[in-house]
Design a protein that fits this description.
The complex is a heterodimer of chains A (189) and B (442). Chain A has 189 residues and is of the alpha+beta class. Chain A contains three helices and seven strands; from the N terminus they run H-H-E-E-E-H-E-E-E-E. In chain A, strands 1, 2, 3, 4, 5, 6 and 7 form a seven-stranded mixed beta sheet that branches. In chain A, a hairpin with a 5-residue loop joins strand 4 and strand 5. The model of chain A has no long low-confidence stretch (mean pLDDT 93). Chain B has two domains: 102 residues, Rieske [2Fe-2S] iron-sulphur domain (Rieske Iron-sulfur Protein); 262 residues, Alpha-Beta Complex (Naphthalene 1,2-dioxygenase Alpha Subunit, Chain A, domain 1). The chains are: A alpha+beta (189), B alpha+beta (442). The interface between A and B is large, with 40 and 46 residues.
Chain lengths: 189, 442
């Protein structure tokens, strides 16, 4: 567990619009299985994390009543005493992208049909010129021989400006399931 | 003491015709296994009674419960169980179900507590399951609380920190159950001077597959690696397993797939953990793994320190993946679904930076997002599709590869099969059949 990071979204319609367009493009590339082009949206030192989610013992606090069910108490994997589902860098993601395009990557052949919906985007410009962006993600997944599945979660990103657009420097994916009922969370969320 | 059994209360009349079916589903030599073994609801009910109701089942690791009041929740097959460290310092395992109306009394995955309170009427239980308080007693008078505790799992025993429980009060000891499997566990567990620890919550994911498939795969299926996982690895990665690999079966149902490396092997080739590294090798990690190997030679001796594990299984549903730091249980959820729970396990005295590097080798390769395991999960789910084809009931699966070639190894206990010999699986299904027949007869 760790302390929730302060997030102070700002009203900046122009930047918000550009972030939105960036996410739409990203979603389209992934849904169209253009995984190698997706890699170009990442910084070389990207930190990509997906904490595991568990059920802690609820402890109330009269001083801070909302802390009892704070989301961050359910997440594991940020420090040495926890276990994330994923903690990856560019090399890992590049290996996933390359694998997914091979005919003998059997979990991907026939490939899943995915549809990503990005919503509830909020942004906070940071002092170093990058942008913290929170968004919600729904990912519809349909694949021959298995039930359709809808993933739901939040993404907490840090985007760096690059070539008039952005690159993803940090991504944290907070999925809403504890027991993973979907086909795989090796996907690119 | 109450004892709890999987599936108690099944209709007795259904049992007799099933015995014949079980006997027919697996041939005497274990070479043919019928598709219904994986799909039939009656077979599954019999498995819960006669295998999960009697065998030793993995519960937790000692390191998850360092202090009095610590608990974790888990399952024994489909029975919810709380494992606690009592104020007596001992490990206890209790059915997670209130004696009054049956609700689970603990809803958290782990934590530290003084006891468990049922949400419905606030019946309150202590860490050893004793019923401490019934609030309604104030209104209606006293009841005999001594008979209304949480049913304890009647047997709980531990081997080198691995805690197992059995629903069978008369089960032979855990040591007896493990037998020479301890030799192979020790090659790993005794390698590290301060032992090992489990860190963080387990990964949990639901497979559309019968529980025996993931278990069987990680029992010793060396034959699939070069094919199912060929998108990731060239064929040479598996040549070590092919050249030096053995499926060692110290007892039917258990197995350890290992490589017995030649005396000429370098430290690098011998060292535990090096092979699991998939993207980049951190120099600190490298030095650590080599230093562990040097100590291993002193601790384990010249022969055992040359044993390099791959996967192993403890009957009926516990696996250990040596190269990528994971222990796991296949919790059955009906014949067609399995919750796979997978924990990260590391040397206790490794520096934090090394642990973190090892953690990445686990989560990137195995688990619900594992780049290797995603192919396995797919294969197990696809096997379920094939197993449900009624029209092919007369075409059982073939498990006969290498039959008769198994023998003994001069340095390792048990029956030894070369890498592609399916003896480990034949022995598993032979034991499975024998236990079902014995259990359903009595």
């Amino acid at each position: 567990m760790r302390r929730a990071q302060a997030f102070t979204p700002a009203f900046d319609p122009d930047t918000l619009r550009r972030v939105e367009q960036f996410y739409y493009r990203e979603a389209r590339l992934l849904d169209e299985r253009q995984y190698l082009q997706w890699l170009s949206l990442l910084t070389p030192d990207i930190r990509y994390r997906l904490p595991s989610r568990f059920i802690p013992l609820a402890r109330g606090s009269t001083r801070d009543p909302e802390s009892i069910h704070a989301i961050d108490k359910e997440l594991s994997g940020y420090d040495a005493v926890g276990l994330p589902v994923r903690e990856e860098g560019y090399g890992h993601l590049a290996q996933r992208a390359a694998r997914a395009l091979k005919p003998n990557a059997w979990a991907e052949n026939p490939p899943p049909r995915t549809r990503r919906f990005v919503a509830n985007i909020e942004i906070e410009p940071l002092a170093d010129g990058s942008i913290r962006a929170f968004s919600n993600l729904q990912l519809f997944h349909s694949q021959h021989g298995r039930p359709d599945h809808l993933f739901s979660g939040q993404r907490r990103d840090r985007l760096e400006p690059a070539d008039g657009s952005f690159r993803i420097a940090e991504r944290e994916v907070i999925l809403d399931s504890d027991i993973v009922r979907g086909p795989s969370i090796a996907l690119l969320f | 003491m109450n004892d709890i059994r999987e599936g108690r209360g099944c209709v007795a009349g259904a049992v007799a015709p099933m015995l014949g079916r079980i006997a027919e589903l697996v041939t005497d030599d274990g070479c043919y296994v019928g598709r219904k073994v994986f799909t039939d609801p009656d077979i599954y009910a019999a498995e819960k009674r006669s295998i999960f109701g009697k065998s030793w089942l993995y519960l937790a690791h000692d390191s998850q419960l360092p202090n009095a009041g610590d608990f974790v929740t888990t399952y024994m097959a489909e029975t919810p169980v709380i494992v606690t460290r009592g104020t007596d310092g001992e490990i206890h395992a209790l059915a997670n179900s209130c004696s009054h109306r049956g609700l689970p009394v603990c809803r958290a995955d782990f934590g530290n507590t003084k006891g468990f309170v049922c949400p419905y009427h606030a019946w309150t239980y202590g860490l050893t399951g004793e019923l401490l308080a019934v609030p309604q007693e104030r209104k209606v008078g006293r009841i005999d609380k001594s008979r209304l505790g949480l049913p304890p799992v009647p047997r709980v025993e531990c081997y080198r920190g691995f805690i197992f429980g059995s629903f069978d009060a008369n089960a032979a000891t855990l040591d007896h159950h493990l037998g020479d499997m301890r030799f192979y566990l020790d090659v790993y567990l005794d390698r590290f001077p301060a032992g090992v620890e489990v860190i963080g919550p387990p990964h949990k994911w639901l497979l559309n597959a019968n529980w025996k498939l993931p278990y069987e795969n990680q029992l010793g299926d060396l034959g699939h690696g070069a094919y199912l996982h060929s998108a990731l690895t060239g064929p040479d990665v598996f040549s070590e397993a092919e050249n030096h690999g053995f499926g060692m079966v110290p007892k039917p149902g258990h197995s350890a797939a290992v490589r017995m490396m030649p005396e000429s092997a370098t430290e690098e080739e011998l060292a535990w953990g090096v092979e699991g590294v998939s993207v980049g090798m951190d120099p600190q990690l490298h030095d650590y793994l080599i230093s562990v190997q040097r100590k291993a030679a002193e601790r384990l001796g010249p022969v055992r320190s040359r044993i390099k594990g791959l996967v192993c299984g403890i009957y009926p549903n516990f696996n250990f993946v040596w190269s990528n730091h994971s222990i796991r249980v296949a919790h059955p959820r009906g014949p067609g679904q399995t919750e796979l729970w997978s924990w990260w396990i590391v040397p206790r005295d490794a520096p934090d930076a090394v642990k973190q590097a090892l953690r990445q080798q686990y989560s990137f390769v195995l688990g619900p997002a594992g780049i290797v395991e995603q192919e396995d999960s797919e294969a197990w789910a696809q096997q379920w599709i094939g197993s449900n084809v009624d029209y092919l009931d007369d075409r059982p699966y073939y498990y006969g590869l290498g039959q008769g070639e198994e023998g003994v190894h001069p340095d390792m206990p048990g029956v030894a099969g070369k890498a592609f010999n399916e003896y480990y699986a034949r022995a598993f299904y032979q034991r499975w059949r024998a236990e079902l027949i014995a259990g359903e007869t009595t």
